Amino acid sequence: MTDLAARPLRLSTADPGFDAAFQTRLHWSDETDAQVEQAVATILDAVRARGDDAVLEYTRRFDQLQADSVAALQLSPAELKAAFDSLPAPKRQALEAAAARIRSYHEAQKRAGGESWSYREPDGTLLGQKVTPLDRVGIYVPGGKAAYPSSVLMNAIPAQVAGVGEIVMVVPTPRGEKNPLVLAAAHVAGVTRGFTLGGAQAIGALAYGTATVPRVDKITGPGNAYVASAKRRVFGQVGIDMIAGPSEILVLADGSTPAEWVAMDLFSQAEHDELAQSILLCPDASYIDQVQAQIDRLLPGMPRREIIARSLNGRGALIQTRDMAQACEISNRIAPEHLEIASSDPHRWEPLLRHAGAIFLGAYTSESLGDYCAGPNHVLPTSSTARFSSPLGVFDFQKRSSLIEVSEAGAQRLGRIASELAHGEGLQAHARAAEMRLKP
After folding, report:
1. What does the alpha-carbon distance between residue 349 and residue 357 come to, in Å, rounded to a whole number?
2. What is the pLDDT of residue 178?
3. 198 and 308 in one domain?
4. CB 3.0-4.6 Å disulfide test: which of 146, 157, 158, 336 passes with 250?
């Protein structure tokens, strides 16, 4: 395809209009958001009112998947195991190796701070925290433009490590095409129940429950704009992990990493979809030229080259900075999902970086290793939300209950404090409840 080209926006922080031009590249269309919100509202209202019937209606419309009932779309454990058994040995081994690394990382995370604790004060009063897993969670696995067995592992394994009792997977299968690797991953990761459902209707079914799909306590996992909008709308009925936007990668490069490696790393996010964002920050103009040359050379050989080109042309950017320190400053403004430090001395720059979903240190740490098998979770905050949120993990599948046991002696001390404050707030019943326990 000789006419296909990818030309990310070329900018320099020295340009007078840099801030305005760069902000335009980050901007989203409010009109598109409004259209998505209205469509999702209609779907969720229908699922809440008509349950399985509405879920079937939208599954037929959007996935062209014909079925007489939602029960017919349920994946049995035997089908998941059969998918695993049918895989070639290298794929089975890779799936199990990735799962083992992800499980090991999340078990370490749990040991570091996911336990209950308590202590007693001198008067016998006990204070503490009780950590318990959620009863049932739903995991959404994308399945429109590509299949994502890695998302099954990254969502289900930390839930299993946390001790969740039931893990319900939903995955769209357009035209009924089931991906064996996705089903095999569900078997390896310990998914309890699975349904070949997707889109806003799948989120509605998990949030409200239907005759066939059980209502869950929390929904995790990324999806398209309709899935993200649906998760936003059902929050409160259920918990959610985050509102995930299109995938993002930001590469900070000092020119020491082979340019073709960086070009391919930019491709690795651009190939997700046309709205994915790939940005390079580098102080060396000649190195940026080399990366662009590698983009031109490598693009024709990529199976998803049309998506990559549209992503890079529409949302990509190659930005020359004053120096690496300024690149770090701009990175903190962006707060990217994936942040690569393609540098000969990544630990020099890492302390300057405050906001990122995941930080990949050094030339050999490609973002794709984090996506599949390094161990840390690949469900990461997008759209600058890394400023205030974190990757998915064990703690997202647990909740904390405070433990309070006040002794008789403790009630004499605390009761007087509570009484004073309650009267000050005009809440006499609160005050009297504390005062009744005071000794005359």
Report:
1. 16
2. 94
3. no
4. 336
Q: Examine the domain organization and report whether 226 and 268 are in the same domain.
A: no
**Contact by Cβ (8 Å): 312, 363:** no
Residue type, 314: G
Residues pairing with 9 in the sheet: 317
Q: Which of 271, 337, 340, 367 is catalytic?
A: 337
Whether the per-residue pLDDT at 31 is higher than 80: the answer is no
CA distance 355 to 332: 5
Q: Strand pairing of 193-195 and 74-75?
A: antiparallel
355 in catalytic set: no
Tell me if 310 sits within 8 A of 274, measured CB to CB: yes
CATH of the domain at 189: 3.40.50.1980
pLDDT tens digit sequence for 344-391: 999 999 999 999 999 999 999 999 999 999 999 999 999 999 999 999
Say how many domains are in the chain.
3
Closest CA to 395 of 113, 139, 104: 113
- 3-state DSSP call for residue 389? coil
Task: Tell me whether residue 337 is one of the annotated catalytic residues.
Answer: yes
Instruction: Give the containing element (helix H, strand E) for 110.
Output: helix 89-113
The one catalytic residue in 106, 338, 367, 378 is 338
Closest CA to 241 of 346, 137, 373, 108: 137
Domain that holds residue 416: 406-435
Residue appearing with tokens 């930390």:
158
- Residue 151 CA to chain centroid, in angstroms? 9
Instruction: Note whether residue 40 is domain-resident.
Output: no
Q: In what order do the strands lie in the sheet with 126-133?
A: 117-120, 126-133, 398-405
**Is pLDDT at 1 greater than 50 in this prediction?**
no
